[in-house]
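Standup notes
- DV: blocked on the single-chain target, sequence here:
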Amino acid sequence: MALILNTMRRFAGRNVRCNIGRWLSLWRGKAKPSEEMDCDVNSTCLPMNYCKLDPSWKQPRVVIVGAGMAGLSAAQHLSMSGIHNFVVLEATNEVGGRIHSTWYGDVMTELGVDSLYGCPSDSVFRLASHERLMSPPLPRIDRTAGGWYVPEEHRQIKDKVVAKAVSRFREIERAAVLAYDEMLNVQRTESLWEWFDERIESELKGYLGDRGELDDMGRVMYAMTNELRTKIGASLRNVAYELYGPAVKLPGGEVSVASGLIGTMAPLIRNIPVNCLKTHQRVATIRWGAPNNTSPRSIVVTEEGVEYPADYVVCTVPLGVLKHSQSLFCPALPAKQWEAIQNLGFANVCKVFARYERPFWLPGTGHMNFAWSKMDLYGSSNDRNHWSRCVSGVHEAPGSSKVLTMTVTDRESLAVETMNEAMLSSEVHELLRRFRGDPHLSPPSQVYATKWSTNPDFRGFRTFMNATSGIGHIIDLATPLSTDCDMPPVIIFAGEHTSVEHYGTVHGSRMTGIRASSQIIESTIQYKGPPFPSNAAPPPRLTNKPRDGFTQEYNK
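- DV (later): unblocked, structure below
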C-alpha cells in the first residue's frame, strides 16, 4: 500500500498553474467566492482563506471517515488551508471509493464510476485536466451507440426508424425533467414508468407509418426505458416521475479518462501529509454528543479498538452502509436524519465484462442495443424477471478490441453478483447468441462482474430519488450534528448522497467534501483554533508550535 501511495504522489508531483483569471475576477469584484469555485484546490496554489489561518493557533483535531473522492477532497482542502492535524480512515486497502480503475484484457477499465461531465464546471474534470489526463478530442461516451437488434428475429432495425423513435423518446424525457418544477406542491401519484408508458402509447397511436415500422418504433422506445433504467440504476416503477428532474445536469456530455479515473486521486493525495491516510481502518463507532465543556467532542473507534479523539468528524460513509449501520453513531442519529437515510434510494449497479481471445466483431462494431418489446420487459412471461431483461445493450469497452461490457441494475444485479463465473459466462454467451443469431458464436474466454451491492463497504452504487424520497431528505441528511446550536457542528456529512444538485455523481462527492472542510476552516478562524464553549476563555496562543501533538500521536 505504501508503494502505491508513493507512486501516486510521484505521479502527482507536477506543478500546475492556478486559475489566475478567476482570481483576478474575484479581486476586481466581478466574481463571488462560491463552492463551485472550488477554492482553486485543483492546483497547487493556496486557497483563499489560507492567509487567515495563523500558524500559531492550536489546530483542531479532525477525523475523516472514508478515502473516496469526498474524503480526500476534504483532506486536501484542509491541508492546503494550513490544517494538518487530521487523519483519514479507510476501511479497505485502496483509496478512491467507487472510483476503481484496473487493467482488464487489453484496456484500462472502470469498475466503478466511468465518466465525468465534459466541461470545466465539473470539479473532477478540472482535476483531470490539471493532471493532463484529458486531451482533445475528448473521448465522449454514447450509451446508445450501435445498431438496434430484435431478439429471436436476428435483424437490425432501420436507422431512420431508430432516429424517429429516439427523438420522440427524448422529447418525453425532457417533459419528465420539466415536470419537477411544475409538481413541487402536488402530491406524487405516478411512477416514471407510468409516465413513459402513457406517452409512448400516445405517440404510437398517432404514428402514420406501416405496421412493421410501428412495431419497431415501439421496441426502440420501450427499450430506451431500459437504457434510462441503467442510467438511474433502478426500476422506473420505483421512481416518481416528478422527481426525475431535480439533479442538475452539467453541459459537455459524458466523457471518459483513457488512463483511468483513479488518476484524479493523485493531486488529492499529493497535498495530504505522510501517514495521515490510514487504510484497513474500518470504523465501528462514532461517539459524539459529549458536553461542550469536555474534550474531546467526539471519539471515532475502529473495529480493532483504536480510538481517535476529534473536534470534528467528516463522515463520508456511503448511503448503502448508513442504511445498514444504525449502531454506527452513539448516540443514534436524530430521527429526521435516520428517516432520510431510509427513504433515499441507493441503486444496485453491476457491470459485467466479457473478454474474448478471438473477438467475433471488428473494432468499432461491437456496440449492440437490445430492442426488447414491451411484452419482453413488462409482460407476464416466466423469464421476464431474468437478469438479462434489464440489460439495455452491450458495448465495446472504450479503447479495447477484445472486451465487451454491459450493465445490470436493481434486484437483478444482486443475482449476477452472486453467480459463479461459469454460469455467468454461459448466460452472457446465450444472450449474445439470441441477438446475433450466430450458432457458431464463440463464448467469452473470461467474464467478470463487479460486486458493489454485495460489498459490505458500499452496499450499492449511487443515490437516486425513489418513490418515497425527495430533495428534503438530502437536505436533512446533509445537516451537520451539534450538541449545542451555539457551537460548531461535531459531525459533518459529505458524499454524493449529501449533494442537493449533483447527487449520484463524483462531482457532487468532491464538492461536498470541500463544503465540509470549509465549515471546519471557518470555525477555526472564528475560534482561532479548536472550538470551545462560549462561556470559556479563548485558548492560549502557541507561539512556536504550528501543530499540536495530534498528528504525531496518530502517526506513531
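- Follow-up: The longest helix spans residues 159-182.
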